[in-house]
Specification:
By secondary structure, the chain is mostly helical. Helices cover 30% and strands 5% of the residues. The protein contains 3 helices and 2 strands, in the order H-H-H-E-E. The chain has helices at 7-16, 18-23, 29-37, and strands at residues 55-56, 62-63. It has a two-stranded antiparallel ribbon with strand order 1-2. Strand 1 and strand 2 form a beta hairpin. The longest helix has 10 residues, at 7-16. It is rod-shaped.
């Protein structure tokens, strides 16, 4: 399985250590790799149909955007309802 990490997080590590990176004598390649390995895995926010504002379960799983979908399906147009 491939781990996903944030490119911004890697850039932030390099920027935070820019004094060392520019000198390379103080921060080894292994130290940079260790910092990258310590980054949390990026988790995409998947919104399933049953959680989406466009999904109408009362109408047998019809989506307001078109189509009939199962509750555990998902698409790139999914939006969570705003609460409050």
């Amino acid at each position: 399985m491939v781990d996903l990490i944030s490119r911004q997080a890697v850039i932030r590590i390099l920027e935070d250590n820019s004094a060392y990176v520019s000198a390379w004598a103080f921060l080894s390649f292994e130290q940079i790799l260790e910092k990258i390995r310590d980054l949390p895995i990026a988790e995409p926010d998947v919104i399933h149909c049953k959680e989406c504002v466009y999904y109408e379960n009362e109408t047998h799983g019809l989506c307001d955007l078109g189509g009939e979908w199962a509750p555990d399906d998902y698409c790139s147009y999914g939006r969570r309802p705003k609460h409050g």
